[in-house]
Write a structure and sequence with these properties.
The structure is a single chain. By secondary structure, this protein is mainly beta. It has one domain. The protein is built from no helices and five strands. Strand 1 and strand 2 form a beta hairpin. It is elongated and about 35 Å long. The structure holds zinc ion (ZN). Zinc ion binds next to loops. The site of zinc ion (ZN) has 8 residues, from loops.
Amino acid sequence: MSLLETVPISCPYCGEGIELVVDCSVPEQSYVEDCFVCCRPITIHATADPSGEVSVQARHENE
Ligand SMILES: [Zn+2]
């Protein structure tokens, strides 16, 4: 059983679609991931509810 979920987001800077791999065993996490297209740092906030539904917000680093 995999606890990793692939979630599509859009880069808040360049709008490019990115696939994030989120660890669903962690209820809530935030981290910074560099966009692979424009290389700017995206603040990722991921939450996983007990049913396994994952939601991800991607923001500018300084927002
Ligand atoms: Zn980008």
